[in-house]
Fold:
Amino acid sequence: MMRVNVKGVVILSEISNEPEQARKYGNKIRITDIAIKKVQYIEYKGLTDAQNAIMQRLAKEVLFLSQAYNDSNEVAITCDLALSDPLENYGVCLGDEHSVDVCSDTQSNHLIVSAKMCTVVIFHNHPSLQTFSLDDIRFFVANRGISILVVVSNQGKVHYLYKDKKYSESETIQLFNECVDGLDRLSMVSERYHRALAFLARCSETGLFYS
Structure:
């Protein structure tokens, strides 16, 4: 099982060690130049037009880096939009087909731990066509300084989670724990994916905006 306590710290996370048969759920999609060009300009909740333009540029960049340097596997970019020059000070971390350890990159980790509440934006791509995973959601909730988490599929589709002004950490943690209840290390990835969808369908109740 995987649970989060009221301080946003993961207590138990055995389900990240999924069995081999579960890892076959969702085939990797290779990134193309067309997919990168398809990344649309999005009016993110709470951001200015200039910040939205930066977000589009970073969404394209995360796909480009994955395509050019990481075999279309996961790549994460961490950026603090509160900085005067956010595009000059972002962190990059390369992962594998199924995950990326954002905090393994020194610059990314520095941005996450040093930023004020709700200023850090993290992008990462998904080699399959899925939206946020339970691990993505857990990471977002556990790190209070992250305001927006963005997933870009390898075909250029963008989803994001945003902590609104009405965001309640305790209520979000309670909802997350309800959604992962009963899962363990043998749970299939398809089941975990449907639990993630269940969380996303209800997250507005806790002050999270999902698009």
Residues 7-210 form one domain. The chain has one domain: 7-210. The longest helix spans residues 49-69. The helical segments are 33-38, 49-69, 106-114, 134-142, 169-180, 189-202.
